[in-house]
Amino acid sequence: MPNTIANRKAICDVLLERAQSDRDIVVLCSDSRGSASLTPFFETFPEQSVEVGIAEQDLVGIAAGLASCGKKVFAASPASFVTTRSYEQAKVDCAYSDTNVTLIGISGGVSYGALGMSHHSAQDIAAMSAIPNMRVYLPSDRFQTACLIDALLADEKPAYVRVGRNPVEDVYAADGCPFEMGKATTLAEGDDVAIIACGEMVAPALAAAKSLEDKGVSATVLDMYCVKPIDADAVRDAAARCKVVLTVEEHSPFGGLGSQVAQIVGESCPRLVRNLALPDAPVVTGTSKEVFAHYGLDADGIAASALELLQKAVD
Amino acid sequence: MTSIEELESLRWDLRQRCVDIIMAGGGGHIGGDMSVIDALMVLYKNHLNVSPEKVDDPDRDRFVLSKGHAMEAYYAVLCEQGFLDYEDVRDRFSKFGSPYIGHPNNKLAGIEMNSGSLGHGLPVAVGMALAARMDSRSYRTYAIMGDGELAEGSVWEGAMSAANYKLDNLCALVDRNRLQISGGTEDVMAQDSQEERWAAFGWNVISIPGNDVRAIDSALTLAEQTSGKPTVIILNTTKGLGSSLMENKASWHHHLPNDEEYKQISADFAAHKEAERNA
Fold this sequence. Notes:
The complex is a heterodimer of chains A (315) and B (279).
Chain A: H1 7-19, E1 25-29, H2 39-44, E2 49-51, H3 56-68, E3 72-78, H4 79-82, H5 87-96, E4 101-106, H6 124-129, E5 135-137, H7 142-153, E6 159-162, E7 185-188, E8 193-197, H8 202-214, E9 219-223, E10 226-228, H9 232-241, E11 244-248, H10 257-268, E12 272-276, H11 288-294, H12 299-314
Parallel strand pairs in A: 1-2, 1-3, 3-4, 4-6, 5-6, 8-9, 8-11, 11-12
Antiparallel strand pairs in A: 5-10, 7-9
Chain B: H1 4-25, H2 30-47, E1 62-65, H3 71-80, H4 86-92, H5 121-134, E2 141-146, H6 153-164, E3 170-176, E4 179-180, E5 183-184, H7 185-188, H8 194-200, E6 204-209, H9 213-225, E7 231-236, H10 259-278
Parallel strand pairs in B: 1-2, 2-3, 3-7, 6-7
Antiparallel strand pairs in B: 4-5
Helix pairs in contact in B: 1-2, 1-3, 1-4, 1-10, 2-3, 2-9, 5-6
């Protein structure tokens, strides 16, 4: 049975449960409660919900003001808008003022498909990572999303979380989601290629590792949901045991997971690194799956890139 | 409560300390400091329920200096109220490694939020006012903006939400000194009438002579008594108030007086103080 629960719904479920005993949890939306799957929260806890209308700067500013008064704030808005329109509020009101705000970027990456580049967030990892004192997380499935939200509720620092619009294949299970805040999850261990992925790219990366195994190629697969601060030790260890490193992300080629991994590998354990990402251009029209396949970000594409890179290392 | 007479004297001492901080630090936003310092002083002296002992009290009133560049005036008032040590601020302002920077730094006692980039304070203050309502606390929230700042769209997003949520525990103050870096506000980007604009957004509007201590005090009291909507106090001020050298001069937006100018400004402050005493 394919999973039908989107990561955004997993966020709402955790917040609904925790808010029953924590009156300081506050959720904000910018006319986005439906698309964020947060309508149940607004209906169950109206006094802990704030609607700001289509006004992302106001969304993030108000979120920071609430947080400065002790609230644990989750502000949800499309990733494309909350990481650009309100970028300065994220920088000044959240990161610089060090407020307990979690920005939830919904419908991230190319989730909005045919709606075009205005609605895609191919820049969000780079943009948010560049802000001092801002953390960036891209959970891979609904179980990890739930673990992450719980972990964020337990601290008081600003963070950005990107989730996609559609349900994604489970990587973990309800009773089997190993999670340590700030640490990558190792999904496979092998010695030929290290595949480091985040968000929706983790499932195809794992599938690629399985198909590579049939060809006699062993892969280490890291779920690097914590893009910033990245788990540098896990990157170094994976690079050290493998011949080449492949990164996979639903993001522009610059300033994302691949850039961070390449920095670490280049400094501490030189290997060939290839960054699989979206192009430096508006993406082709299509569903997420179609777009990923077109740019080689599906299991077949990732496996093919791994083989090419290994061949290059031998040459 | 501090008497109007005491405030009318103190405002010149605060201006002098503000200018001394600027001199020691090698420059500051002196023009806007001088226009807004009276409102800052009256707010902290007679209306804000906050003190050095209460910086973490959940019931304290909240204040956000949205026109963060008026920081030297804010330092003078925070020192006067005992949050910071005046000599320490003056000696280290803008110096290497100093916490006393040119905009609000919320790592310092008494400062709630960082600002500097304009148009941030009102949405933040809306969040603080909403938090009071959620927690059934009676504290009030204040934000001071500059008039040039009102060109920022985020101000009006905040204005819309404050009225939508009928935040009568929120009071915005606008330092309407009619000057910004490039010149007069009406030449740079016309904004008259601010009274009509805020009223159209659903706010209670009080427009006063913004350097008149008694008028500021009364307006803040009126705002406290208003229910059902947020209040904005339009402070019709004079940029650079206190010395003819700098009054209504856009070039004094950010400036370091030379020695001669410093002497003149200090003498003018003293003369104002004396005149006010004899009035």
